[in-house]
Amino acid sequence: VENFQELLENIFEPLFAITIDPSIDPKLHKFLLSIVGFDSVDDESAYEKTPNEDQLLIPPSEYTKEENPHYCYYMYYFWANINALNHLRTLRGLNTFMFRPHCGEAGSVEHLMASYLVADSINHGIMLEKSPVMQYLYYLR
């Protein structure tokens, strides 16, 4: 994989293709009818430097660094693709997917903030107890 855009294409391009033309792969089409949501799993305990604005504004096709992008970057681009895919699937009368990332088990409160903005809900959330404001926002949801 040469850049982050290729990673996104490897994940989402087949899903868009099957949504447009299920005859491409009938088994995958049938499988997608039984899927209810996406999770994302990473090592939240790994240290991440808080990104500056310039780092978050790099287009995926230009993100060629060896280290993974920040959690916020992943969350935004996963949400954007799932949201576009859901729109297309709705137009075609197909089921849609929730976005419930692996979040809040370890790591920064920034992960909880990013997921709150883009996800339908989260898996884990243990770290919510260390951030009463985020805990309350998730409770309100």
Short description:
This protein is mainly alpha-helical and 141 residues long.
Task: Give a topology summary.
Layout: H1 4-20, H2 26-32, E1 37-38, H3 53-56, H4 71-91, E2 98-99, E3 102-103, H5 109-118, E4 123-124, H6 132-140
State the helical fraction.
40-55%
Main sheet overview: 2 strands, parallel
User: Which stretches of 5+ consecutive residues score pLDDT under 50?
Assistant: none
Shape: globular
Total DSSP E strands: 4
Note the beta-strand portion: 5-15%
Query: Can you write the helix and strand succession as a string?
Result: HHEHHEEHEH
What structural class is derived from the secondary structure elements? mainly alpha
Give the mean pLDDT: 88
Number of helices: 6
Estimated radius of gyration: 16 Å
Widest sheet: strand ordering: 1-2
Distance between the termini: 37 Å
Characteristics:
141 residues; mainly alpha; two-stranded parallel ribbon; 6 helices; globular
Report on the architecture of this protein:
With 141 residues, the chain is mainly alpha-helical. Helices cover 48% and strands 6% of the residues. The protein contains 6 helices and 4 strands, in the order ααβααββαβα. A two-stranded parallel sheet has the order 1-2. A two-stranded parallel ribbon has the order 3-4. Strand 3, helix 5 and strand 4 (123-124) form a beta-alpha-beta unit. Helix 1 (4-20) packs parallel to helix 4 and helix 4 (71-91) runs parallel beside helix 5. The protein is globular. The termini are far apart.
